[in-house]
Amino acid sequence: MYTSSTSNEKAVTLLTENDWHLKFARSGVAEPPTGINPNVQVRLINVQVSESGFLTYPDFFINPYLNSFEFNMEVLWIPLPSNDGGDSYTVHFGNTKKFSIFFNFWNGYGVNENYPLHLRGEGVYILNSSGYPLAKGAVVSRGPGQNQWFPVKIIYNKNAATTWSVYVNNVVALTYTDSSVSTSDSWHKVSNNKSIMVSAHSGGSFRMQLFVRKLNFIYKTTISANTMVMPPKFYPSADDSTFSSNRAAYARSIYPRIANDASKTNAEQITKQKRIYNRHDASSRIERLKLQAIGESSMRLKEDETLSFKAPNVNDARDALRRTRSHGYIVPPKGQK
After folding, report:
1. What is residue 156's three-state secondary structure?
2. What is the largest CA-CA distance in the chain?
3. What one-character-per-residue DSSP string does 97-109 give?
4. Does residue 293 or residue 261 have the better pLDDT?
5. Helix (H) or strand (E) segment spanning residue 298
6. What is the pTM of this model?
7. How many H-runs (helices) and E-runs (strands) does the chain carry?
8. How far is residue 309's CA from residue 214's CA, in Å, rounded to a whole number?
C-alpha cells in the first residue's frame, strides 16, 4: 500500500478503481464506459485506421511540492485478425511540459526519424515534451499477449536514484533517472503544468482494439513543518476551543484540496465552491464561513507566507491624532445639539 512515511509528507488519492471513469474526459474515438465496478472499462480504439482515443484527467497539478506518485491500470488488447496488433498506447503526465510513457508495438518506430539504433523499434519508452525518446526499456509493451488483461504500473520519485520506474505485467520494463529534476529546468517549476492522459493509437497496417480499466493514482506532496504553526496570540484572545476546533475542521476538509495547487487563485476558487450535498440553512452557512475565515487566516499555503492573529487597529490612532490637532475638541456628529 502506498502511504505517507513522514510527518512532513502527505499522500493524496486522486483516482480509485471505482471512480476513475467518472473523472476522465473522453475524446477522439474513445467509447463510453461499460461494465460495473470495479471492472468498469473503456475501449480507447476499435481497429480504426489511423485513429486515436484519449482519456484526460485535468486536475493533477505538477508543482514544487510534488515528491512522488504511483499510477496503475490494467490493459487488454485484441489485434485485427490479419495482423499481430498495433500501434501503441501511452500515459502522459503534464501538458505544458510533460513526460510520456510510450508502449510501442511497431518495429518501424524511429527509423524515418533517424533515431539512434538503441531508440528504435518495439518497446517501452519515456518521451519528453517534444516526443523525443529519452530512454528505451524492455520489449514488453504487449504484456503477456493478446486477449488477456495485464497490469501496468508507473512510479515517479524525484528524491530517488531512479526517478521513473515502469512495470508491465509486474515485470520491470523501464527505469530512467531525470538529471534535471533538481534544476531550474525541472517540470516541477513550469507554471500551470497539469493533467494525466491515457491514449491509444490504431495505425494503418497494424490495428487493434485496446481497453483500459482499474485506473488509480496516488501522489505524495511535501507539507512544511510550519504549515499549521500557531502564530502568537495578542490581547484580547479567547481561551475556549472554538478557534482550534474550526482550524482542525478546515485542515481536514478544505486545506488538502487547496494544497494540491498551492496558489492563491486556486484557494479562492476552492473555498467558494458549493457542494450540493452540504447543508444550506442560514446557521450552516455562517458556520462554514467562520470555519473558512479561521482556517485561511491561520494556515500557510507557502513557506514564505507570514501569519498573525493581530489585526491593525487604525481607529484609535486616528481618533487620538484628531483630538490632538483640535486641542481636545471634537465636532459632534450631525443631529446633536
Report:
1. strand
2. 102
3. S-EEEEEE--TTT
4. 293
5. helix 282-298
6. 0.67
7. 6, 14
8. 46
DSSP state of 142: T
The amino acid at 143: G
CA separation, residue 218 to residues 17, 155, 165, 228 (Å): 12, 10, 15, 23
d(CA 18, CA 271) in angstroms, rounded, equals 26
Predicted confidence (pLDDT) at residue 210 exceeds the cutoff of 60: yes
Model pLDDT for residues 137-157, shown as the tens digit of each residue? 987 888 888 899 999 999 999
Q: Do the Cβ atoms of 209 and 48 come closer than 8 Å?
A: no
Percent of the chain with pLDDT over 90: 39
Strands 171-176 and 150-157: unpaired
Number of CB atoms found within 10 A of residue 333's CB: 6
Record the cell numbers describing residue 77, joined without a space.
488488447
Average confidence score pLDDT of the chain: 80
Alpha carbons 254 and 248: distance in angstroms, whole number: 10
Give the span between the Cα atoms of 222 and 187, in whole angstroms: 16
Q: C-alpha cell of 262? A: 498551492
Residue linked to cell 491515457:
198
If DSSP codes are grouped into helix, strand and coil, which group holds residue 326? coil
Alpha-carbon distance of 265 to 301, in angstroms, equals 11
Of 219, 142, 135, nearest to 174 by C-alpha is: 135
Residue 173, all three cell numbers: 520494463
Quote the cell numbers at residue 96. 505544458
pLDDT of residue 94: 93
pLDDT at 287: 81
Percent of the chain with pLDDT strictly greater than 70: 74
Q: In this structure, what DSSP letter does residue 206 have?
A: S
Q: Is the Cα torsion angle 15, 21, 23, 25 positive or negative in sign? A: positive
For the chain, domains (ranges, CATH) are: 9-222 (2.60.120.200), 242-321 (no CATH)
